[in-house]
Amino acid sequence: MLLDPHHLSALSAILRYGSFDAAASQLAVTPSAVSQRIKALEDRVGASLINRGSPCTGTPAGLRIAQYAEDIGLLEAQLSRELALEQGAGPGQVRIAVPADSLATWFVDAMAQTQDMMFDLIVDDQDYSADWLRRGEVSAAVTVGGQPVSGCDAVALGAMRYLPTASPDFISTWFKNGVTAKTLDLAPSLTFNRKDGLQNAWMEAQTGSRLSPPTHFMPSSHAFVEAAIAGLGWGMNPQELVRAPIKDGQLRSIIPDAHLDVTLTWQVGRILAPALMPLTSAVQKAAAKVLLSPVKAERHR
Asked: pLDDT band for position 19 (50/70/90)?
């Protein structure tokens, strides 16, 4: 089934900018023209593609077709480069699922090394980023472990090391009698969001028990570190983000050398792998500066 590229660009623009008016402005057409294109596309595929609202969002079919349109754009950009054609449509757009801690520590470096590409990042917990690939809603993702998603090429990146950190005052208040199942169950903790299982996984590994301490939800990698420094709670922080605070005495590990290593993998849809090879190379180089090499990973989640 061939789909009109003008219809596809209208759908992508609505989902990217959130409204028919903003999409029309971006495409230099009238909102009526955008509406007509979406209606024609919906008639063509026999399904609703847009949830009208503020902002507009895609239905499952709409998200899948929008991803298809971006994939086609990447392949066309690759063909233009290989044939030395003029690339009038501009750089290709790539949608990627990335864990927040990877984005905060090394992934921006990979983006900066990649030319002629625009990024649309989906930030999700590392245990769930592979789901975006399975649903066909992204072209690539940083995922946990080495199990490849069907239809994807997988590249081992290494391990992100997490340290159980808190401020010295917090440790002296809550763990003055040691870090035990009892004290961990009482001490306030930090949790990125309701998908974040790092703290629970670490506590169970250390105590053999499933604990449910009080927690602050802190959905920002940098704010997570700041909250630990401020004494709000203890949490599993990426080693890269807490090197300086530990050196300055603002943070300490609540149990020395009791780290948690999370292995990360870069996965790309197999059809798009050649078009995204420059990005894959940049991802490997950027990750190698921060992550432990795969052979040094001591714990998989």
From this structure: very high
